[in-house]
Amino acid sequence: MGLDNTWVKRGSKDWFELEDDCFDSGEDVIASYMCGSFSGKLYDTFVRRVTGTSLYAERIFNSTVCKMADALEKYQDDGNDEFTGEYADEYKDLVKMFRFYADAGAELISDW
Q: Is the pTM of this model over 0.90?
């Protein structure tokens, strides 16, 4: 079974709505992030390894999302293989997404 993750407003289950086009929709996977949800199953192993937090958690509070964004950015800045290989743009988009929603105060919920 799949895992869908959705960015929501703090303390709510209401989707986090973007006010403007903050992402370039021409990038590989960022267009799906613009709608406020993504297939977490594809990224859980990577995210858990880098951040220590599973995307299968029922709700990830903003304070944890911020720490996850920090860890993902550090991992990217360290020049790890995921950011130089065939899927480099996709991983960079994932980091960008986490930083944007962390700074916006969003939380992450899961559904599987």
A: no
